[in-house]
């Protein structure tokens, strides 16, 4: 199921929240995104966890693995953005120097003619 396509009773796209109740710890659910007056729509994003530790532990391991994968992906994207920022900063410095040189040439032109 594509989680981005869940629509509530208002016809709007839902947001995903995480339950931290003792009955459903760390379970993600879709709910209405309207501030204030929600339509009350709630639907599990994934089946509620089985309370059996033999089932729960592998499921939690999967969740941890998914989050670690996501964190690695984010760290990679951040490193790419940092690299782009450094490149842009370098280009910015070069452009400022070129602009300064251009102004210097213009001033020299008017002084020396
Ligand atoms: Zn709604």
From TrEMBL:
The chain crosses the membrane at residues 94-111. Keywords: Membrane, Transmembrane, Transmembrane helix. PANTHER family: ZINC ION-BINDING PROTEIN. This is Putative zinc finger, GRF-type.
């Amino acid at each position: 199921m594509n989680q981005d396509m869940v629509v509530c009773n208002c016809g709007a796209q839902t947001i995903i929240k995480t339950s931290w109740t003792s009955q459903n710890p760390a379970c993600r659910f879709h709910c209405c995104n309207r501030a204030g007056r929600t339509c009350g729509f709630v639907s599990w994003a994934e089946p509620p966890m089985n309370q059996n530790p033999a089932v729960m532990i592998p499921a939690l391991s999967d969740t941890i693995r998914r989050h670690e994968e996501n964190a690695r992906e984010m760290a990679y994207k951040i490193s790419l953005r940092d690299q782009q920022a450094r490149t842009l900063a370098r280009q910015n410095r070069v452009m400022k120097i070129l602009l300064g040189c251009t102004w210097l040439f213009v001033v020299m032109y008017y002084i020396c003619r």
